[in-house]
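To illustrate the input format used throughout this study, we show a single complete record. The first block contains the structure-token representation of the backbone; no residue identities are included at this stage. The design step must infer an amino acid for every position from geometry alone.
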């Protein structure tokens, strides 16, 4: 586990008068070890391989802390399940989501970024953040 991410979480927890526990460290480690877009249930399965006594509620609470501290971002691809991905020191990207198999493809294209900025500028709008999720069929499902 990166000591930077652990320090971010520990600083956030102490600033909020909470305690850093072994379970929270285990959840953080499992989250950082996964490069997938994980749900709380996915992460719980991973965590239970290391520590069988960690409950799903602990995973949900820790994911909330990770999101609040800026280490994770919560994603909603419209299928009724929240997913989480790394946010700290990761570059911006957008998503293509296959509506058949659920595959998620990350991408970034400079022209899309440029056009978004241009549209915002023309409308006197200042972008503070954005996300682009495209839905369709991946190459395997076409």
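Output of the design step:
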């Amino acid at each position: 586990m990166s000591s930077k991410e652990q320090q971010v979480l520990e600083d956030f927890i102490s600033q909020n008068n909470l305690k850093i526990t072994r379970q929270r460290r285990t959840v953080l480690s499992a989250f950082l070890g996964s490069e997938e877009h994980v749900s709380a249930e996915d992460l719980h399965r991973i965590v239970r391989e290391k520590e069988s006594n960690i409950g799903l509620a602990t995973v949900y609470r820790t994911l909330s802390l990770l999101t609040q501290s800026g280490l994770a971002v919560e994603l909603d691809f419209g299928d009724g399940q929240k997913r989480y991905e790394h946010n700290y020191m990761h570059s911006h990207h957008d998503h293509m989501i296959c509506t058949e198999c659920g595959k998620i493809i990350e991408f970034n294209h400079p022209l899309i970024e440029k056009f978004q900025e241009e549209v915002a500028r023309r409308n006197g709008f200042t972008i503070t953040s954005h996300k682009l999720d495209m839905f369709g069929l991946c190459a395997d499902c076409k």
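Structural context for interpreting the output: The CA atoms of residues 30 and 46 lie 7 Å apart. Strands lie at 72-76, 82-86, 94-98, 104-107, 133-136.
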